[in-house]
Write a structure and sequence with these properties.
Bound molecules: NADP nicotinamide-adenine-dinucleotide phosphate
Distance between the termini: 76 Å
Largest sheet: 7 strands, mixed
Number of strands: 23
Strand content: 15-25%
Helix content: 25-40%
Strand order of the largest sheet: 14-17-18-13-12-20-21
């Protein structure tokens, strides 16, 4: 499988239109098999400096290309991604572990984003408005910012990259991108696609390497005007502090502790299906994964039984096999973290009703696998109800009313995604108003964002920016107010008003 899908053994950085060999590399491990699939550069600060220099030079010209023409490159990127969808999806499963069906969904998200942001090339709307003085015209326009630094995580290695790079590029910026070291194949493929699509040299540069070196160099580089980061809260906070010192614009998309609420009037079969998909898809390693179920006590036992039944149908294994529904955990550290939370949950007094173990032996021996796990009778003060576990672990928290459910949902530091299952239209509208997350689903799980809507969270999940949707353009553009006075005399605002 490895030989057929990959045409080289060592990846290279792509800077100023050239592939550049690295002095130092590390192995990329397929988490399903434990095999090394390729080597990825561990670049240095000097490599970042070169990439930023190239981006700075390229950006000036790129910003002068009319936006509809910049967008033509994205249309072409979308077309090529569509053509290569199956190949990309298989590589994605190999480096990340998510099952092929989900990998295809993620690649499709990138394709959708390409066409959507290409469309923005003919919009990028500003506003015209009335001036307060005669013979004067006023408008606001979006202006590119310059060189932007993108830092992306391993759990959605292509979708998140497209959420960030496509709006940045269509808006007239140049990009230096540091992908997660665990998942460099998607970055390599996307770069190749951009080259084939005709992107001028220097507009997109990929520098592989560790967060501590390459990521940090981007964050601290004086010529990088914007950092767009997706990843953990610890890293995001550190990046935000450094950007703050430099007055650098920073967009942060971080963790979640997402809940599905199930009311006593819900379609329980549907709710259980939504919970299992949201909690165990991508082995629970989605920022929007459902890790809490807030359930009305009247239906708690029935819901538990339905969830347990559905879990039994989940085949765990290598995501390249068609019948597998839950793939591996990304790395040993992730697995150890999940195991530690099983102990924490038990010690806190939650009742373990499914899973709780690493899978070993036979087909699981070489990879990193964990059973879909369910705790019940959890309370909101428990750490398993508050902290991001980032694995296939969900905790049921019983409540007595709709009001209590909303309170429990909102009582975590995160605010990414939430969902409610109910047939009561009044509860639906109250929930969408009162759930304090950036994304709210009704009668669906906590995952499944569409790219033309804003993606991001409130409170500890982010810092007020959004990836995807037209709102993504706000990260990569400055608003410029333009006044044109055609009166032929000096008219003073606020003073010469009739
Ligand atoms: P992470 O450890 O914070 O890493 C994210 C990225 O930051 C990687 O590219 C990493 O590089 C880099 N990085 C690490 N330390 C850095 C530093 N000091 N300076 C600059 N960059 C640095 O997060 P992760 O474990 O990969 O991703 C999982 C987290 O992402 C979860 O918390 C999840 O909820 C969150 N997430 C959020 C969203 C959202 O939109 N809200 C979406 C997806 C994931 P290396 O790993 O290569 O060293």
């Amino acid at each position: 499988m490895t030989e057929k899908l990959l045409d080289k053994e060592v990846l290279m950085n792509y800077v100023n239109g050239e592939w550049i060999e690295a002095n130092e590399t590390t192995d990329v491990i397929n988490p399903a098999t434990g095999e090394s699939i390729i080597k990825v550069p561990l670049s240095s600060q000097e490599d970042v400096d070169q990439a930023v220099k190239a981006a700075k030079a390229a950006q000036k010209e790129w910003a002068l290309v009319p936006a509809p023409m910049r967008a033509e490159v994205l249309f072409e990127v979308g077309r090529i991604m569509k053509e290569k969808k199956e190949h990309l999806s298989k590589l994605l499963t190999m480096e990340n572990g998510k099952v092929l069906e989900e990998a295809r969904g993620e690649v499709q998200e990138g394709i959708d984003m390409a066409y959507y942001m290409a469309g923005e090339g003919r919009r990028l709307f500003g506003q015209t408005t009335n001036a307060e003085l005669k013979d004067k015209f006023a408008m606001s326009v979006r202006a590119p910012i310059g060189v932007v630094g993108l830092i992306t995580p391993w759990n959605f290695p292509i979708a998140i990259a497209t959420w960030k790079s496509f709006p940045a590029i269509v808006a007239g910026n140049a990009v230096v991108w540091k992908p997660a070291t665990e998942t460099p194949l998607m970055a390599n493929e996307l770069m190749k696609i951009f080259i084939e699509a005709g992107l001028p040299k220097g507009v997109l540069n990929v520098v592989f390497g560790s967060g501590g070196t390459v990521g940090d160099a981007l964050v601290n580089h004086k010529d990088i005007r914007v950092i767009s980061f997706t990843g953990s809260n610890d890293t995001g906070r550190r990046i935000a502090a450094k950007c703050g010192e430099q007055l650098k614009k920073v967009s942060l998309e971080m963790g979640g502790k997402n809940a599905v609420t199930v009311m006593d009037d819900a379609d329980l079969e549907l709710a259980a299906e939504g919970i299992v998909w949201s909690a165990f898809g991508t082995s629970g390693q989605r920022c929007t994964a459902c890790s809490r179920v807030i359930v009305h006590e009247a239906v708690k036992e029935d819901l538990e039984q339905l969830i347990l039944k559905k879990i039994k149908e989940l085949k765990i294994g290598n995501g390249l096999h068609d019948d597998v529904k839950v793939g591996p955990i990304i790395n040993k550290a992730g697995l150890e973290k999940i195991k530690s939370y099983i102990k924490i949950g038990k010690d806190e007094g939650a009742k373990l009703i499914a899973g709780g173990n690493e899978l070993t032996g036979d087909e699981y021996a070489a990879g990193l696998y964990f059973e879909p796990t369910v705790f019940t009778d959890a309370t909101i003060d428990m750490r398993i109800s508050q902290e991001e576990i980032f694995g296939p672990v969900v905790s049921l928290i019983p409540v007595r009313s709709f009001e209590e459910a909303i309170e429990v949902n909102n009582s975590v530091e995160y605010g990414l995604s939430s969902s409610i299952f109910t047939r009561d239209v009044n509860k639906v509208f109250k929930a969408q108003r009162d759930l304090d997350t950036g994304i709210v689903y009704v009668n669906a799980g906590t995952t499944g964002a569409e790219i033309h809507l804003p993606f991001g969270g409130t409170k500890g999940t982010g810092n007020g920016h959004r990836d995807s949707g037209v709102q993504a353009l706000d990260v990569f553009t400055e608003w410029k107010a333009v006044y044109v006075d055609y009166s032929g005399k000096l008219q003073r605002a606020q003073i010469d008003v009739e």
